[in-house]
Amino acid sequence: MNIKNSVKVASENSKYFKSLIFKDTISSTQTIAKEELKNYKDEFLVAALTQTDGVGRFKRNWESPNDKGFYGSFVFRPNVSREKLIEFNLFIALAITKTIESFIDYDIKIKWPNDIYIEGKKVCGFLTEMIKEKEQLSIICGIGINLFNERSEVEKKESIERFANDTFNVKDFVNDLIHNIEKYYELFLSKDFKSIRNEYISYSVVLGNRIKITTPSEQFYAKAIDIDDNGILVVINDDGYIKKVISADIEE
Fold it and tell me: Any stretches that span the bilayer, and where are they (predicted)?
């Protein structure tokens, strides 16, 4: 089964995302999800075969070769504070990791907070935004997963197909992805991050390493030493000061 039909079938069988907007070509699933917020009261999913203006974190371009990946924006309607957004990211990162893990025979790692790597190659990234309209709070989570091989201009980027074992099937993968996202979303609603903290840390690729950290206000090098109970990255900089990082671009 192809990607398009796989997404449609998985949506029909899902608990939260039966409302699906699917386009062969779209500017950006994230952009359309924002535009469609007013037309839906509950959760919905925007997905496409290709994006002409796909966007990642910090407004980076996200390559979206036609019919080669999962490109989708999930719209959630939680009743949570803005401070919970960082925890939401880490729950979703585990959901994606668990999905990929069942289809590959290689170690999988999470680069805090939003990137998934296999053997040092990036296979997934996601962007999370919180939007409030009147009394409605929405979290829009745009996920890009490279499923099939395609020459990339981005160094260290790879596809699931490159590492997949004999069990890889796109229909099963997309179905498991949506199921796990729903599962970990429900955990997010009912549990604190500390309930999955040890599991998340077991996949971390940054802890113990010296990393380059770029925030909207500064750029510095530091050693990642912990992820606290709120999902915040704890680092010690070159001057020996401990700092907490809530949102940043991380480079090794």
Answer: none
